[in-house]
Structures are given as structure tokens and as C-alpha cells.
């Protein structure tokens, strides 16, 4: 039976420790500690009895506990959590590290993060420190590792779903995500949400069922760890400085540094509250006004990485980025004939509902043995596609396949079979650890196959699971450009493959791209938004992306 006692006692104990840390009266500290022990040891669930009946619990503590039972925290605890230095709070997240030790490490050694603590222990800087024996230090190291594991970056699919859940759970006049998520990075460290809302949004936020732990609670900013382990920062900003706050908290830090320098050159100051000349407000309400006041084009968030965008925006030379609405189709999708879970009919209907001009079905080819594909099955599917085409006169169905690139660069079927497909994606699904030279030759051979149109998920990475294969990408992209083979931007968020830095390199070599969903189920079709984010981070225009092209131009590219 779950009792409220332990949690309430832990909160009171934490409050006692924070109270002591902030120089609180020692007598009261002891009375909080005694009350915490008494609550933990009380035989009945304090949620079902008068808290005042617990020995040692007076009126003031009872009030705090009643508030805790209502909403999982109490005002004085929230205040102290907000007041203790960020570095100390960060340290206290390390399992087995109490606030007393944290503040000692912070004040005497300047250690302000779990990372810094790990380095200090490894370097032996804490050897012989009173209260930190070898066993304690070893436990702290273990705690740091645990914390790192729970705080790892996640792929954008996980982060986006959580951000949308958080925004939907809160009442606000205005609410949006900023940070790396808005810049569409493929991995996200934490989620940054800005809101224009009454102060009560903070307690509403802390009480949400997805909150596992409140890391810091203040009036302007609350940080929580969610049940999935991700950190979410919620900031309440004044309505009139919405644009400035979005600009500041979208980052990247490097982009902001560059922008701030521009402001300083004009004798102005740029902060999260706005662009100012002394007391005079120059721009605060929208990002557009801020960039315009600085004499620049508006810089779309995915470009804000200090990768030349500031100079280009000043010169008025930013490219017009490809957008989701530019996509006219999807060139890599699966059905339940191989490892998809939806039928051909349902997938095609879902594609048509998205208003596509064309849609390619590209089930796996026979060399991926576990899929049990055969030429007969593929040809039978081709017949069904032709039948289905009659039901969807507005959308051209393309019968394709996802081939397997063998170690020598060959694919599943000979040319006379490949010729019968409208589109061939070719991907590496095995032998990931070949040497760089062999892998490079493998990709080049695949590009040189006249029937291979698109190299699927080229690096084969799976975020958090498998790294990229090793290849001389310059050589591969040169071959792709020369042979007219598109590189895929596989939008499936744990792939995000090619990643944006390689897309940028490939574009430099004159390569074209296909932004595909690699769908195995109907909801996956919507993943193309993530692929578009990758493309935008690489400065692609719609001309670079073959599946924004009208059908005729696409068919010419495919050369059938
Ligand atoms: P992440 O969370 O590692 O995926 O990356 P970001 O870019 O979301 O970084 P984060 O969450 O630390 O900070 C959000 C934005 O706040 C960041 O992109 C830029 C802005 N920012 C600007 N200056 C500073 C600063 O001095 N400190 C912090 N923490 N953020 C700043
Ligand atoms: Ca962030
Ligand atoms: Ca953050
Ligand atoms: Zn594949």
C-alpha cells in the first residue's frame, strides 16, 4: 500500500537541508528534521488523518504538509529550490550527494556540475577531503554515470512529442517551444518552452502527471524532469517581449553571440527583453522586427548555428528554404508485404489524403532475407498498384523497391528486372563495419548502377544505437552528382539520415536529395517534417529536393 508519508517526509527533509544551506535558524532546522522522521515513522497514512496528530508536527509544519498533500510541493520549498545556486542544485541531482556536500564542493572547490565533480574525482582533487572517503567518492562516480544515462540527448521525434504534450497540457495566452527543438536539431538535450501566462501556470506545470521530479521552481522559470527522463524548462515571459525572448531562447548561443555583436556595433543592447538604445525600445515584440532593426533578413531558426547565416542575412542573400508544404510526394514507403504494418491500399489512401501528386511504394527486396520477398510477390504487387491507380486519378502511384547494397556494391536483381520498377531506392542493411575504402567503393558502385535512383539512409546510423558507417563522403557525393543519383534524407527521426552537415557537404558537390518518410505505418508519413528540418539546417531550397518537383520533372530525373 502506497503511503504519502515517505514522500512528504522526504520533501520536509529536503526543505530542512535547503533551509540550513541558506543560513536558516538551526533550531528550526532540527524541528523540521524531527518532524520528517516522525512523519516517516507514523503508523497511519498521513493523507487519511489530521497531520497535526503526528507527534512533533506543529501548526506551521502541518500547513506545509497539507499543501504538499494537495499538490506535491509547498511554497516555501519551491522558494528555496529557486534560491539555491544553480550549480548546487545541479550537484544535488547526483544520487547519494546531499545538499551539504554540494554546497561545500561548490564553495570550496568551485565544482558546479556533475561533470566538474567527475573530473575532480578522477584528477584526485578530492582525495583526503574530510567526509569524502574512497568509498564515498566511488559512489559519487557511480551516481554521476547514472545521471548521465538518464540525461542523455534524445532524438527529435521523442522530444517533439513531449513538447507537444506539454504545450497541450497548459493554459496560456501564448506558448511555443524554442531551443534546439525549434532549430530542428536531430538530437535534443532539453526542451525549452516559453509562455505568456499568469503565474499559476508554474504550479499547474509541476502538478502534471508527466512530471517525475521538480529540478528548480521559480517565478520565471521552472525545470522538471519528466517520467521519460527528459528535462523541460518552462519560462514565463512578458507579452511585450515575446519576440525577444523567442529570439534569445531559440539560440543557438553562437548565433546569439554574433547577433548581439551587431547590436553592440550600433550602440544598442540586445537581451531576452528586447533591443534597446539606452532606455529607448527599438524592437521587442517579434523576431522579425528585431532582425529588421539590425539591418538583416529574418533568419529561419534551423539556420541559426553561426554557419555563415549572419553574413548572408546582412547581405540579403539567404536562400529561400524548402518547406514541408513544398513536398509533392514520398519516394520511400513500406507496406505489410514486407515489414510495414499497413496494407498497400491503406498506405496509398493515406498518401492521397495528404494531397500528394505522387507516391512510391518501395518494399524490401529479396536479399534482406528475413523479409521473405520474391520477384513473384513484387510483380503481383505491381498489378495491385496498377489497379489501385484507377481509384486515385489525382496521384501518380510509382511502383518501386528498396534494394540492398551488397558488400561489392551490387544489388538484389539484374538490370532487366530493375528496369521494370518506376523508382529504385538502394540502401546498406548489412556489413556495416567494412573499411573506409571498401565502403566508399561499395557506395560508388551503387551510384553507378543506372537503375539506382536514390541511396537510402546513407550513413545507416540509428541515434543512440548504431553509429555511422565509415566512408569517404566527398568521394561518394562526387559519384552521386556525376551519376545523377539522389541522396536520401530519411526522415524517420531515429535515423535522421543523412544528417544536416553531410547534406550540406553533398549539396556543395551538386547532389540532389529526396526527403522520404521511410514509413512502415500510416502515422510515419508525418515524419517528413523532421526531414524538412534537416534540409533547412543544410540550407536546401526546393530545387535541391527531387520530391518537390512536378511529376514530369521527377520522371525525367528517374529516367524511365
Ligand atoms: P540542447 O538543449 O542542448 O539541445 O540545446 P539548446 O540550444 O536548446 O540549449 P539550451 O537549452 O542550453 O539553451 C536554450 C537557448 O538559450 C540556447 O540555444 C541559447 C539561449 N541562450 C543564450 N545565451 C545563453 C546562456 O548564456 N545560457 C543559456 N543556458 N542559454 C543561453
Ligand atoms: Ca534546450
Ligand atoms: Ca534549456
Ligand atoms: Zn532501409
UniProtKB/TrEMBL annotation:
InterPro entries, per the entry: DNA-dir_DNA_pol_X, DNA_pol_lamdba_lyase_dom_sf, DNA_Pol_thumb_sf, DNA_pol_X_beta-like, HHH_MUS81, Hlx-hairpin-Hlx_DNA-bd_motif, NT_sf, PHP_dom
Keywords per UniProt: DNA damage, DNA repair, DNA replication, DNA synthesis, DNA-directed DNA polymerase, Exonuclease, Hydrolase, Methylation, Nuclease, Nucleotidyltransferase, Sodium, Transferase, Ubl conjugation
Catalytic activity: DNA(n) + a 2'-deoxyribonucleoside 5'-triphosphate = DNA(n+1) + diphosphate; a 5'-end 2'-deoxyribose-2'-deoxyribonucleotide-DNA = (2E,4S)-4-hydroxypenten-2-al-5-phosphate + a 5'-end 5'-phospho-2'-deoxyribonucleoside-DNA + H(+); 2'-deoxyribonucleotide-(2'-deoxyribose 5'-phosphate)-2'-deoxyribonucleotide-DNA = a 3'-end 2'-deoxyribonucleotide-(2,3-dehydro-2,3-deoxyribose 5'-phosphate)-DNA + a 5'-end 5'-phospho-2'-deoxyribonucleoside-DNA + H(+)
Pfam families given in the database record: DNA_pol_B_thumb, HHH_5, HHH_8, PHP
Occurrences of domain DNA-directed DNA polymerase X (ranges): 3-305
Domain Helix-hairpin-helix DNA-binding motif class stretches: 49-68, 89-108, 124-143
MF terms (GO), sorted A to Z: exonuclease activity
The UniProt record lists the keyword GTP-binding: no
Compartments where found: Cytoplasm
Domain Polymerase/histidinol phosphatase N-terminal: 329-407
Reported cofactor(s): Mg(2+)
The enzyme's E.C. designation: 2.7.7.7, 4.2.99.18
Tagged with keyword Nuclease: yes
NCBIfam families tied to this protein: PRK08609.1 (NF006375)
Job of this protein: Repair polymerase that plays a key role in base-excision repair. During this process, the damaged base is excised by specific DNA glycosylases, the DNA backbone is nicked at the abasic site by an apurinic/apyrimidic (AP) endonuclease, and POLB removes 5'-deoxyribose-phosphate from the preincised AP site acting as a 5'-deoxyribose-phosphate lyase (5'-dRP lyase); through its DNA polymerase activity, it adds one nucleotide to the 3' end of the arising single-nucleotide gap.
Protein name as annotated: DNA polymerase beta
Source species of the chain: Nonomuraea corallina
Lineage, broadest ranks: Bacteria, Bacillati, Actinomycetota, Actinomycetes, Streptosporangiales
